[in-house]
## 1
Amino acid sequence: MRLYPFICLLVLPLTAAQAAKPIRIASPDGAVQVTVDVTPQGQPTYAVRYGQAELLRPSRLGLQLAGADLTRGLKLTKADKVEAVTDDYQLTTDKRANCSYRANRRVVHFKSQASGPQLSVVFQVSNDGVAFQYLVEGNSQEVQRITTEATSFHLPASAKGWLHPHAKAQTGFANTQPSYEENYQRGIAAGTPSTIGQGWSFPALFETNGHWVLLTEAGMGRNYAGTHLAHESPDAEYAVAFPQPPEKTTPDAALLPESRLPWRTPWRVVVVGNSLAPIVESTLTTDLSAPAKTPVLTDAPGKSSWSWVLMGDQNTTYDVQRRFIDYAANMGWRYCLVDALWDKQIGYDKTQELAQYARSKNVGLLVWYNSNGHWNEAPQTPTNVLFEPESRRKEFARIKQMGVAGVKIDFFGGDGQSFMNYYQDLLVDAAQAGLLVNFHGTTIPRGWNRTYPNLMTMEAVKGFEFLTFDQHNTDQEATHCATLPFTRNAVGPMDFTPMAFSEIRGKERRTSNAFELALSVLFQSGIQHYAEVPEGMAAQPAYVQDFVKKLPPRWADVKLLDGYPGQYAVLARQAPGGAWYVAGINATDAPKTIQVDLSKLGLKSGTLITDGDTNRSFSTRLVGGSTVSVTLPAKGGFVVQP
């Protein structure tokens, strides 16, 4: 359970007459307002406004337990005093290093007519959003089970959504879905049924009444399942959906939430803003998650070389990986990732030699694992060594002794409660062994990189590898990349594996090289694995290579300067020393002129790198003054280096 320092603001015990009145909670600045009420049928509801704008119409609250209905027939009996929440903490793997959370907290209590478990809802309202979690209390010592969560998000009928179709379990490559690797549907009418028929994944972005709303969840402990939005959303009311039946680690493992009482659920998170800046800049996902259980690793984030995405399985060999270690060392990057089949094509002894060689070059070696128990049929090895605790701990100790710095674990099987536990078991055991972790073929971040600082990044995105699989994906790269800063990357580190200047074998890349360079700043990941290979990097102008070499290993802050999901994005990221880097991309099919106000960042001058005469060339010039004008070609990009 989270413990916060509280300051009492207002005491409002409810009398019998007052109990029938709606309860209100406002953000510290008063702009975000939540109203909690009960329908005549005893259904708890909440609604959200930003100033005079309605963002969520009255939306449902409640839980259906196996033995108790806490969705209707309830009375609002009490609302605790409003308390101020203050939480300051540090992160090294996310968009902001020094995070400051301020919110007003109020617990609203409901009474069921039946005896048994009783429901309360904890609301925390900050200047950038609304969060709420359920508290189920009672005298029973038996394990309780939730069969349905009644939570809904009832948007105005005119809202538009940028939504990620949730995949059907046990589909895709070797039965590895759902792994959050679809293209977002952009600007669709709220209430549109999902294209796959399994609903929509978190995070979900909406534009409504001149404002923006991002829905997600955070604070995932061990007593709940990961959720998403349901397939049907009549009248733009999106319900919360539980995982599909196959999404559990073993046939008898927990799928739906199970826990003893008292029971606190994860947070439902509604990030809000009158512009897109609060959506991109918010840290609510980590604000609402448990503090670090192990020391924060200030020197762990960094950049990494990686052969697999452009060179494939066949190049996971000793000689090639040694060359990529040299590449990382030459670029000043902290890591080199050795992907699947290293145990077969290199072997443990020679991998130990690679790890030792890497350390002599001040490079840390990362190695890949298949997560699988029964849930996937992926043949890539090492397989079947991480699921059982004894085997996992023995393996982690072995590779740590070999000199390996971290692991990439791939091909997970879903969002059931047992998988939420498996993820955290892996993080705990890896931390005890002193290993960093990168999850692939995975669920979304839910604030775990705060709770487990050895978690560097998570995929949960249709990343660069998909561009090598199918021309259709390659054709959509620009619009996809211009959507991600406002959606997936807004809720946590994202291992898209960006930036390739080389051509993709058998595919035609539509983006310019300057577009690709911009992704090195636009996308945030605790460890940033670059797609480019040594030969491709060596072929670029010296000033481009120098830019990539000088990129900081982690970021201290972020500002959205301009953009619109799927069309263009301009971000500034601050290095730990205070210098700001700016990156922008144009995803449209026409040239676009972008005005960058450097004065907002305290910059008087910088070096601009953008498109040259062709989409495979660069140009550069010094820029100064308060505003810089950059005209980007279709699917072009730029960076400004301080």
## 2
Amino acid sequence: MADIHAILKKYWGYDRFRTLQTEIIESVLAGKDTLALLPTGGGKSVCFQVPAMALEGICLVISPLIALMKDQVEQLQKRNIPAMAIFSGMSHREIDIALDNCVFGKIKFLYISPERLKTEMLLERAKRMKISLLAIDEAHCISQWGYDFRPAYLEIANFRQLFPNIPCLALTATATKTVKSDIQEKLLFKEKNVFQKSFARANLSYSCFKVEVKEQKLLDILKKVGGSAVVYANSRKKAQQTAEFLQKNNISADFYHAGLSSEDRNNKQNAWISNKIRVMVATNAFGMGIDKPDVRVVVHTEPPSTLEAYYQEAGRAGRDEKRAYAVLLFHQKDLNELEKNIAQSYPSVEKLKNTYQKLANYYKIAVGSHHMISYDFELADFCQNFQLNPLETHHILKQLEQQGFVQLNDAVFAPSRIILTTNQEELYKFQIANAVLDPVIKFLVRNYGGEIFKQFVIIPENQMAKKLGIPTENLLKQLNFLAEQGILEYLPQKEKPQITFTTSRFNSIDLPINIKDLEERKSQASQKIKAVINYATHEKRCRTQMLLEYFDEITDELCGVCDHCLNEKQSKKTWTYDQKVLDLLKDNSLEIKELEAKIKPNRKEDLWLQIQQLVSSGEVVYDSLGKLMINKV
């Protein structure tokens, strides 16, 4: 077995592992089922990627988000590690070829969604793969007590029963005691085995401010705290408006949300990562999988619906372990909206069935068909087609997803791909018979070699047309004609949100909605919102202590850097002026300026305040010359 430190150095360039990474990796290499809890930025991916590189065979990674899959695959490929992902929007042929490469090729990592685990195509190929490790990212999604339950994660247990000897590593940044136990039970751990780094972040200062004018407070924060920043907004419109406000006030800022094109998102993200843009104002999807250690402040302009989400998003600040700040701004109406949203987020069973039927009508899907088939999905078009309220429909679709009937994915850019579907001998005959198409075929073979006969390759049509000296429109016609003739398979680029029917289509009347589960999760959501409100409004407890307690980590130790702790420190400093004033006045009468010179306070205002309090209490009085003296009466 290869040395894990040598692997870390060779592929990641690090000389040593972070806290707990070594222990987690050694547990995995010992073949033990392992649950690893590391805070955001704690290096979770290394915990399965390094042991997978040390083991012979392929690592199967279960991940809930396409964007995270694609990002990690790209990062691995940049390190010359063969990796691929299968996700909604890929054609049946693409998936077939990808799985073949995992069986016969030298692929080290295959990323898939949990929904894919129950497909016959994957299960049959998995039996022929040499799977060395099963890695479960965002493992809290398997627990109904977690904040982002995904029913498809329950399929992992069925998969494990088919492959009982493959060790499992479950990873998450946040989990309560109940969720940790549930994860291990649902993943069929042979024995309990948890590695948990403290949720405390010694360098991260948490603060909450109830303010009337959020924009001005945000501006004050960004002027006081220099460096890179993320500002979270609860809507696309608010993100853009806030970025424009900052720009008008000479703050380098931009906005980011899923409604932008892939090119725009990448350009904005890269500008922020390279510090060409200082502040990114974004919806909550921004930041996942982005490794930027020097973020100095994360500001939430509205409270999120769970402390788990807040902890993860706030935790994107200060990954370099230098002082950083996480600030929550709120109005009272924000807290009222949180409670109001509970009712909106859990629509009636009748509405769930009704919308499910409309989805089936929209795509013309017959009862019993279309299991794991994906479609382009535009919420606005769907709602317009049936005169539906977009916000209410969004909540209904999320509940249908939670119930395991559909899967929703934000728009992810998929470039144009091509594979030659005929052998070289037949291709040569076709070229002779179709001389006008010969230049295009030769270009593909020369530029992509034998790979284009084995797997889909990405083609940039505009650049290709330019090199061939023909208009792009002509090239597209030729590619489509070659596809019609069975010479190649051509998949034009696409960038639209996807919806996948994760079960065969039900008759909507018989849609097996778990009403008890719906009610339980509504109750859980209500409790989570109460925890957020308590965190935001509490003025007499250390913020870090409150977050740790929520995650069942009890401590008497104060963080010393949150708004509460800093206020307490200031109060104690002020109190020491109280005693110093009394000591100095014991034998002399002194003017305030003389007291200032002797005490040298950090803030004169604090000293003046204490003097006022001492005068009000009668302990100190002014003499006839206006000097301060101890009241001896």
## 3
Amino acid sequence: MRALLLIALLIGCPSEEPPSASPEFDGPAWVLFADRVDPTEPQAVSPRARARRLREGQPPVADADRPVDASRIAALSAMGLEIRTTSRWLNAVSVQDLGGAWAQVRSMPGLRAIRPVAREQAPSLPPGRSVTARDEPPPSPFDYGAAFDQVTQIRADAMHGLGYTGEGVVVAITDTGYRLDHEALAPLAPRVLGTYDATQGDADVGQNPGDDPGQERHGTIVLSALAASLDGTLVGVAPDASFLLAKTEQLVLEAPVEEDWWIAGVEWAEAEGADVLTSSLGWYDWYAPEDMDGATATSTLFANLIVPATGLIITVSASNRGPDAQTLSAPSDSPFVLAIAAATADGSTAAFSSRGPTADGRIKPDLAARGVDVQVVDWDADEGLGSASGTSLATPLVAGGVALLRQAHPEWTRDELVDALRRTASRADAPDTAQGWGIIDLFAACGLLCSCRDEDADGHFAQDCGGDDCDDVEPETHPGAPEACDGVDSACVGLDPSEADVDGDGSRPCAGDCDDADPALEGLDVDGDGHSTCGGDCDDADPDRAPGSAEVPYDGVDQDCDGEDLVDQDGDGYRGGVQGDDCRDHDAATFPAPRLQDGSVASEGGHELCGDGRDNDCDGLRDGQDPDCIAEEVAVVADQACSCSAGGGGGAAGLLLLFGLGLRRRRHMVPGSRVPSFVQ
């Protein structure tokens, strides 16, 4: 959002200064427009560049990828102006010489501003070169040779030992030109992914006809400090990186070597997918110290647009005009670039290194690296070494460090990577206007990825080496992991009390333990019957015992967990089964009939129903065998005997008794009996 806002402010809005109010001048100039009216499709953006932009939360293709309107370029040409280059991001055209066309240009529709083109800061390099002896091989994966001190000062050797050498990272360089036939640079040739000469509009970034002698010198030694690859002689900070090489400067000092070529080179490199771009160039001839406010110089405004919108990391030299304050050059005053200071072998600031602050009071430079007696290749030979000094040499060392961090942390955004560099640099606790946050420490900036362990590969590091993973063997346990009711601190935030098993019964409150102080009560459903002890299961080891289960009578087991076994099925008050005396516990009319000593039946007892074939009173006797039936039979016989006067004799009387017993019987229930009286 911030990047889009900047684009709106710097490109899409009316000029902060009406063109008519700008002072008239001749010479090289930028003609900037406030809007775009041509519907021309955006320039192609490489997949790498799209991925970088997306990582920054930006659209993969922006309106600023559209070229400057062809009609406006044609209008400037029709005025007789020579077009040198254009900038999509500035929505601007650079012309060779305004000449007498000032008034015509000023009256163009949609004009935002006319700006003079700045002059270049001369690279600060001592005359001649000195060849140095090879250092003893350090205890490191590489024998750095002469580069040992400058590489180890920023702890790049520790990164190399961990396997981070820049492989797969694309570094862009904008400079005067390059030659790769030196033995320490020849291994880089297969990894040069593209070249662009903004000064000629072609792909030849070497010495061209018409170039001044030594045109390739500055760019070649910058490249060697960053990525030389000759073990035992000279090994740079990122020897396995890939490269985009842009030629954006002419060597002639004090000549108008234009910011527009630099802008064109940066736009090309960004669209080609560079991860980091380093530029050991700067401009100040057209600018006063008060212009170094992060919002005035053309190259600064350009950086303010392209960096936040794309995530491209740009390192630039602070300049070589120290030790006075406020001696920066553009675009090092931009808040979105890393301005690099030059340090000595002992870590102090080189006298020539430019100081801040910016005109608006911000801390600059941002970071520092070795910039005095930096070991480089002999640029115009096939072998041999030399040394050079300047912020021009410190800058590629930091850019190489950025490449190592980008390889180690491809997921980091630009801001995260820059923040890591600042927080771990030598002056992080007290940044100043000489070195900013100080000399970088790549091993520290890399963080736990470099200094700790992640054995379970879950992206979190073990606690015993500074990480936050409380179980570095289990990949499902780490900060941010989902919590489960398993008694494990899955998210590494401390075990939730509900996950603890205080009483040791194997159940936790989060699993339904209704009393975690009582081991007899647990919320587990061990037997899988759908009930736990907290849910009323009286035996959680037996799936046949739970509330609602079918009770098996007389087995001595409480299947339905109601507190007792079923021993009186028919509810007549008498227990059945082996332990009871109710012989028919499914029949409420059948139950024991205890007799009193006087022979009477107890009021709560049963009574035999004579002739139904059942032992109604559970005394073991049925019908005629039961005393109840015998007593009734005697009573009937006696009654009949008394009513008969003669005739039948004894035998006949007996026959009549048996016959009558079968036809007429009267049952009298004792008052209070549970079964109603009836006559049969």
